[in-house]
Structure formats: structure tokens, C-alpha cells
């Protein structure tokens, strides 16, 4: 199981041949990895996985039942268009045109670390996704990150427990 903790935001430009140069700080986090998979993501962006992290995704997708429509559709969405890419000698990758169209990536994009993967966004779409009201974000954070601690019951001493008898 891949164990990455990628982080950071990196603005990059797409060249006329649909290539992007990965910034040195991002490549440093990759620590020599040069094989990746790019796939559609759920939020109108692309997911960019080191190949071993993609294999973990594949293992989870393989658990889905192809005879259940929603599971088949989900696997098709994630796998559809998934493309293996490699870094070239200049630290660049070629973005698949079909995936770029899906995410509406044009000239400027942002790559951001998100745990075991990087997300690739069109810069304008990403900026729009961040335009959440601070109070709304606070409520979201509370809902997602906070859960009531379970109340622990006091240990019961069997010597003082009085059994209930029904008559």
C-alpha cells in the first residue's frame, strides 16, 4: 500500500504540446518516482497518482461488483481515460487531451498535493472552488472534523448490582 503525504500548491503552464513541467519542489516530494497515472476525479479536476498508489485504487475498484450498475458506472468513470504517463528527461509530462477537456484545463493550471495523490485543476476553476464563505467553511469543518466523543459508562461492580426480578 502506497504511503504518501503530498502537499503544496504549484502553478504551472501547459505548453503548446500539452506538456507541463513539474516544479522542482513537487518532484522532490516524488523522490525519484517517474511513472504515474492520470485519471478523472469527482470534482471536475484530474487525479495524478504515482503508479503504486494507482494500483491501490485499482485494487479497490476490483472489489466492486460489475453486475451492479452503480458500481460498474463508478469503476468506468474512474478508469475511463486513466492514462499512464512518464516524466521525460526535462521533468515534463504529457497531459492526455481528452482528460484536459474533461477538466477544462487550458493554459494555466494548478497541481496540489492531497495525501496519496496530486490533483490537477484549471487555475480559474480551482480559484472558484475556493470561494467559500468563511462561515460556511467553519460549519463544514465542524461537520466533517468534529464528532461527539462517546460517553464512557462507569465500570459496574457486580457486587453492588441488584438484579431486577419480574413477577
TrEMBL record:
The UniProt GO MF terms for this protein read: DNA-binding transcription factor activity; transcription cis-regulatory region binding
Pfam families listed in its UniProt record: MraZ
List, alphabetically, the CDD domains matched.
MraZ_C, MraZ_N
- Cite the InterPro entries for this sequence: MraZ, MraZ_C, MraZ_dom, MraZ_N, MraZ_sf, SpoVT-AbrB_dom, SpoVT-AbrB_sf
Name the Gene Ontology biological process terms. Answer: negative regulation of DNA-templated transcription initiation
Its primary localisation, in coarse terms, equals cytoplasm
> Where in the cell?
Cytoplasm, Nucleoid
UniProt KW DNA-binding keyword: yes
Keywords of the record: Cytoplasm, DNA-binding, Repeat, Transcription, Transcription regulation
Every copy of the SpoVT-AbrB domain together lies at 9-53, 82-125
SUPFAM superfamilies recorded for this chain?
A: AbrB/MazE/MraZ-like
Coiled-coil region list: none
Q: Which PROSITE patterns match?
A: SPOVT_ABRB
* Any GO CC annotation of this UniProt entry: cytoplasm
Assembly, in brief, is: Forms oligomers.
Protein family according to the UniProt entry: Belongs to the MraZ family.
UniProt name for this protein: Transcriptional regulator MraZ
Q: Which organism is it from?
A: Ignatzschineria ureiclastica
Q: Quick one: which gene encodes this? A: mraZ
Amino acid at each position: 500500500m502506497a504511503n504518501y503525504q503530498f502537499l503544496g500548491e504549484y502553478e504551472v503552464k501547459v505548453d503548446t504540446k500539452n506538456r507541463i513541467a513539474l516544479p522542482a519542489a513537487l518532484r522532490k516530494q516524488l523522490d525519484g518516482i517517474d511513472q504515474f497515472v492520470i485519471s478523472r476525479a469527482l470534482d471536475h479536476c484530474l487525479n495524478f497518482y504515482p503508479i503504486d498508489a494507482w494500483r491501490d485504487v485499482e485494487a479497490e475498484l476490483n472489489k466492486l461488483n460489475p453486475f451492479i450498475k452503480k458500481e460498474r458506472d463508478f469503476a468506468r468513470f474512474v478508469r475511463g481515460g486513466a492514462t499512464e504517463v512518464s516524466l521525460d528527461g526535462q521533468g515534463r509530462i504529457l497531459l492526455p487531451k481528452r482528460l484536459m477537456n474533461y477538466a477544462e484545463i487550458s493554459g494555466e493550471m494548478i497541481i496540489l498535493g492531497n495525501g496519496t495523490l496530486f490533483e490537477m485543476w484549471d487555475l480559474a476553476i480551482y480559484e472558484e472552488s475556493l470561494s467559500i464563505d468563511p462561515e460556511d467553511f467553519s460549519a463544514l469543518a465542524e461537520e466533517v472534523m468534529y464528532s461527539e466523543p462517546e460517553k464512557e459508562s462507569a465500570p459496574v461492580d457486580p457486587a453492588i448490582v441488584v438484579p431486577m426480578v419480574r413477577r
